[in-house]
Amino acid sequence: MTERFVENENGTVTDTATGLMWQQSYHYAETGNYCSWYDANEYIEHLNRTQLGGHADWRLPDRLEMQSLYEVAHTFESRGRTYVLHIDPVFEFGYGSCFWTWRSRLSGALGFGFDVGDRHWFPKASFSGTVRAVRGNLNPFSLLKENETTAHIAK
Fold first, then answer.
1. What class does CATH assign to 5-135?
2. One Pfam family name from the record (predicted)?
3. For residues 10 and 85, what is the distance between their CA atoms, to the nearest angstrom?
4. Does the pTM of the predicted model rise above 0.70?
5. Whole-angstrom distance, CA of residue 23 vs CA of residue 33
6. What confidence tens digit (pLDDT) does each residue in 15-42 have?
7. Bridge-partner residues for 110, per DSSP?
8. How far apart are alpha carbons 107 and 123 in whole angstroms?
9. Measured distance CA(144)–CA(135) in Å, rounded
10. In Å, what is the CA distance from 79 to each residue of 76, 83, 94, 101?
11. How distant, in Å, are the alpha carbons of 14, 25, 26, 27, 28 from that of 34?
12. Which H/E stretch holds residue 15?
């Protein structure tokens, strides 16, 4: 069986189930600060200018892409403590309560939390989020196929 997440040794991780490539780190880990949705978009522009992993097509994920990283079976261990953050340990993770998505309306933007796997609308200008960039296109049916395979193996 192939590992789902493959470290590319260039600051990126490839998800073999979805075909998406993810930034291994994230804004908060790199800056020590939370950011607004507007700042998150500027951060994406920075990643594209500096060509993270040799690519210049990074973007904010949509909600389904972000949710695809949520794994109930994983907790996150850091500095000798176990946190209830459901994401594969291949990703660098401190604690980010809200990861911004591209979805927005009026003055709000959708964020996703890896502690309980919930989505919330936050004001775009609030400094309550962080960002992990993604590139590629998600075929939602790939998630169904992955879940069917996992369910079959578990039986």
1. alpha beta
2. Lcl_C
3. 24
4. yes
5. 17
6. 999 999 999 999 998 998 999 999 999 9
7. 121
8. 6
9. 20
10. 10, 10, 10, 28
11. 25, 14, 10, 8, 6
12. strand 12-15
